[in-house]
Structures are given as structure tokens and as C-alpha cells.
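Data deposition worksheet. Section B asks for the primary sequence of the deposited chain exactly as it was used as input, without tags or linkers unless they were present during the calculation. Section C holds the resulting structure in C-alpha cell form. Section D is free text for depositor observations; keep each observation to a single sentence. Incomplete worksheets are returned to the depositor.
Section A, Depositor: J.P.
Section B:
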Amino acid sequence: MMFMQFEDLKEKVVLVTGASRGLGKAMAVEFSRHGAQVAANYNASSEKAQQLKEDNPGIEIFKADVSDRKQVRWMVNSIIKSMGRIDVIVNNAGVWKLQAFEEFDEVAFEMMWRINLLGAIYTTLEVLPYMKKNGGSIINIASNAGIGTAANGTTLYAITKASLIMLTKRLAFELGSYNIRVNAIAPGWTKTDLTVGGRSSDEIKELESYFRSRSELRAIGSPEDIARLAVYLGSDYSRFMTGQVLVIDGGRIDNLSHSI
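Section C:
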């Protein structure tokens, strides 16, 4: 199969948060394949981050908890010092805790809120002084749960992703004059450490079967599916696109996304 190269990415530095595994790892690797210099952020998974760097010479790793603005500021300054600039941000770091609304857990919700939303806010705020000089692309990894939902236990998670979608639209409005594009990707259920971690092989097969049956394409997503879309949004091929939320979920047929 022919590999389509986004040549302009060879001149870019891309920051991917939450890049040691799952979607973030796939996006970091895909950007690197297209020649970009990649700053891969991680927090707890140091061994996986180190392996990512060893396997991909174009990737440098930077440790920071994105929910702590001081750590984010240190990370961004370190990237600028080491790599010279940041042209693309992929705000990917995220967590989810399944819980029924009536079993509200304030600690779990606070963690999702701080990482899923404030992490994107802090990272964007710290990069903006550099990005405003040269333009750039900001890609927020949201979820189809932020648009509509059918999955049990995701109400509070969905609130954080809906907020990230609104942040995307607002920043597209505020930053367009600086030639900064802001878009969001809203994946459906994708097989990653986040979605299948801690489950048995039988449980994973059952989940895959469930989500296939609820896809128009009778398919489930892979991290690489999301990564290829992120690379497009980070490249100049999408130069005329901003403020968009791109759903990539195989055509979910049970995702309630309208008022009733």
C-alpha cells in the first residue's frame, strides 16, 4: 500500500499529551512517520514512554501532569528550549471513570475534569505565546460521548468531553486571526488500554462484539484510525478547516445526539 506523505510536517514540531500509550502513542508515532519532530508528553507511564522514544528516533519525551499548570509550563519551556517551537498541539491526555450519575463520586469527577478539560486549557495557554507568532493547529481529542450518548455510566465523562468541544469552537473563533486552527476529533469506542484495561479476554471479545453490532460499518476503531485523522488536521492539507468536530465512530446507530 502506498504511504501518503504530508511533506509539510517535516518542518513542524508536534506536542502530543498523554502519548505513552493508546491513542496518544499511535498519534505520536504517526506524526513521526510523516517526518514531524514529536514532543510526547507522559505522566505515570515512564517505562512505556522511554520505549516509545527508543523505538522512534524522531520522538522526544517530556514528563508532566497536564492537570498542574506549573508542570505544563515547565514542559512547554523545555520543549521550546530543546526543539525550538511548537506548531501543533494534540490535547489527548484523558481519563474516564464509569459511574452512574446517582452514584456521583466527587473525587473521580474532579480527576476527569482536571485532566480532560483543564489539561487542554493549560497546555493551550502555555503554548499560545509561541504559536501566535507563526500560526498553528490545535487538535482536541474529544469523544462522541460529548455529542450524544448511549453507553451506561458515561454521563460525567461526557460532560467533560462536551466542554472540550465547546472550548474547540470558542478557540477557533478567538484564534483564527493568528492563523491558528482549532478542531476536535470525537472518536467512538476504540480498542485501547483505556477501554479494555483490566478486562479478561472473554470480556474484551464481548465488548468488541457489542460495539460492532452498533456500527453501520460493523467495525470497531483502532488507535491508528484516529491517528491518521489527527495527522491530516495537523498538516497544511487542512489549512481551510477550523472550528470543526469530526466524529469517527464507524457510524454509531445508537448514539443519541438530538433532542427528544
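Section D:
The beta strands are 13-16, 37-42, 59-63, 88-91, 136-141, 180-187, 245-248.
The mean pLDDT is 93.
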